[in-house]
Amino acid sequence: MVRTVTVTYAMAPTKAGDRPLMADIHLPDGPASDLLVWLHAGGFRTGSRLHRNHAVIARRFALHGIATAFIDYRLARPPAVLRANTAAMLPALQADAAGTDMPESFCGARPLAVVEDACAFLCFAQSQSVAWNLSGTFLVGGSSAGAISALNTLWLPTFLGLERPAISTVFAFSGGFVYPSFRHATGARVYAMHNPADIRVPVASIRHLAESTTNSDDPVTLIEDDQNAHGDFRMTPQDPLRDAIARIAAFHRSPAAKTPIALPKLETRS
Fold this sequence. Notes:
Strands 1-2-4-3-5-6-7-8 form an eight-stranded mixed β-sheet, sandwiched between helices. It has helices at 54-62, 84-97, 109-127, 145-155, 157-160, 204-212, 241-253; strands spanning 2-14, 17-28, 33-39, 66-71, 134-143, 167-173, 189-194, 220-224. It is α/β, with parallel strands linked by helices. The protein is built from seven helices and eight strands; from the N terminus they run E-E-E-H-E-H-H-E-H-H-E-E-H-E-H. Helix 3 (109-127) crosses helix 4 (145-155). The protein is 29% helix and 24% strand. The two termini are 33 Å apart. The protein is globular.
């Protein structure tokens, strides 16, 4: 059984006034669960925590002892009002991202507002660990803009003066990280999937990240598949969702290592 709790986790400032940010948390029965915080797609302009597939995804993760949280975050309209520390770091971050092939809007103020909101939720969830029967282990994941945000939430808070609990594992589907000077050891591991021909979020950023972290404290396992649909958990359209989530859970549960864990490429199912 999975019970769902909907909460307002923060009031976030925007140029039109404070916006309530809500989250749907799906909590499995049984022993204390690890919590996956999921950041939705939408190019930092659109998207929502409300999606018909989220309950199905939550039930699949629950089978592996993982609770899931689908959260609101601030989008393009109304524009977010950043914290002073975050706003002060924006020029340095934009300079670090200069010359990449990532769309400019993916490197500006909007993604930093998401980091603020994700950290606010992680701290809120940590405060609710007993009430929600959480283990205290946190995972962050997302697709497309959400994947970019998951990686930003792993590495940027230290520089933005934001607090958050430790993150064990990050899942990034069709994402990237464009601030190489700001990557540092966190003890987390990253599972990434990308179509090398993806034009929405070019593969170069996540590929460079994987190549540069082979022997680092935060290794990135990157799976590239030319049949992977943008932002999809599955390697191919024939890959069952249950199998995709089982692989994700197995990656998280596997012993931590200094080098990426090799995951087998699926055979295409007819």
